[in-house]
Amino acid sequence: xxxxxxxxxxxxxxxxxxxxxxxxxxxxxxxxxxxxxxxxxxxxxxxxxxxxxxxxxxxxxxxxxxxxxxxxxxxxxxxxxxxxxxxxxxxxxxxxxxxxxxxxxxxxxxxxxxxxxxxxxxxxxxxxxxxxxxxx
Length: 136
Fold this sequence. Notes:
- This protein has helices at residues 20-35, 57-75, and strands spanning 2-7, 10-17, 46-53, 77-87, 90-99, 113-114, 120-124, 127-135.
- The chain is an alpha+beta fold.
């Protein structure tokens, strides 16, 4: 589950999931939902594999979202479906989505960057929770 919240001139993303892989997948979907208002119209037609190194999980989450944003900014590829494996030295993900189609995908916010401001990733009694602030 993810939710978007207002944060001064930025937007925040709060994510909860029973495990880390689910949290990273929901965070990816949450980021995409900030950029496209009708996320349900994005089809998993193209596949992209990503491998990211990282020992600290909160910074790995930052790097994950930054990579998804970079792919969107440079290729206009909206990734919305994720199969992830997180291990001690990073993550591997198979991501699915499609190229932005302005006739079908309604742009919402222009996300400029993922920030370290109030970056949080922690275990909870039911799994994991994270908060990330994005610059819009």
